[in-house]
Amino acid sequence: MIEAVIWDFGGVFTSSPFEAFARYERGRDLPNDFIRRINSLNHLDNAWARFERAELDLDGFDRAFAQEALALGHEVPGKDVIALLAGDVRPEMVEALKGVRKRFKTGCITNNVPSNQTVSVDGRALCVREIMELFDSVIESSKLGLRKPDPRIYEMMCKALNVPPRNCVYLDDLGINLKPARAMGMTTIKVESAAQAIAELERVLGTKLGNENPAPEGPLTRA
Is residue 161 within 8 Å of 137, Cβ to Cβ? Predict the structure, then answer.
C-alpha cells in the first residue's frame, strides 16, 4: 500500500537544466553534452558533487569546475553553469503535488547548491521555498552534506516520514538517483515530462491528481 510520494525538485517541478546546458553549448561551439560529461566524471567527488554537499563555496566551485572543463579541452567557468540551473516551473506538477498531499505523505530529496534559491515562471520570480512548504519533509544536500545517490539520504527520508521504502513512490529525472530507491523497494518513476510523470503517478496511486481532478474521499495517510 502506498503511503508516501517522494519527489526530486530540479527537472521535476522545473524544466530540466539539461535544456539550458544544450543552449549554452550551442552558443559557444562546445561539444554536445559537454557539461553533463564533466559532471559525470568522478561523480561522487567532482566539483559539482562537492558544491552540492556545501564543501565548496561559489568561488571555489567556479575555479574547480573550470579546471575540470579545461582538462577536457574547453573553458567553462563554474559560475556560468550555476546561472543555467534555474528552470521554468511546471505548474501542473505543483498541482499534482497538491493533489497527492490530500491523501499521502510527501517528501522532497533534492541535490541543490546554497545559491540556488529561486526559479522563474511567467517572467516572475517564484521562491523555491513556496513549493518546499507543500512537503511534509524536505532534505537538501547543501544543508545535509550528503547527496543522491547515496542510499543514506533515502533512508533518512523514510525515517522522517515514518514509512517503509516499499510503501513509497519516488520521482526523479535521473536514472542514477532512482536506482538506490528501487533497490530499497520503492516504486520509482523517471520524469521525462510533466504529462508522462503525472500519468504514471496516477496509475500507481490509482487516483486522478490536480485541481480539475481532485483526489477521491478516503482516509488520510498524511501526518
Answer: yes
DSSP designation for 55: S
Q: What is the pLDDT of residue 4?
A: 98
Of the chain, the end-to-end C-alpha distance in Å amounts to 16
Query: Exposed (0-12), middle (13-18) or buried (19+): which is 123, by Cβ within 10 Å?
Result: exposed
Domain extent for 58: 17-82
Region 190-213: what's the mean pLDDT?
88
Q: Which amino acid is at 5?
A: V
How far, in Å, CA of 223 to CA of 98, rounded? 15
Domain end call among 66, 82, 98: 82
Which helix (H) or strand (E) element contains residue 135?
none
Q: What is the mean pLDDT of the chain?
A: 88
Do 174 and 115 belong together in one domain? yes
In a domain, 210, yes or no: no
C-alpha cell at 88: 521554468
pLDDT of residue 128: 75
Dist CA 51 CA 184 (whole Å): 27
One domain for residues 26 and 128: no
Same domain, 113 and 27: no
Structure-block grid coordinates of residue 23 = 543552449
Q: Decide if pLDDT at 111 tops 50.
A: yes
Mean pLDDT over 174-179 rounds to 96
Helices (H), the chain: 17-27, 34-40, 47-52, 58-71, 78-82, 91-100, 128-132, 141-144, 151-161, 175-184, 194-205
Set of cell numbers at residue 1: 500500500
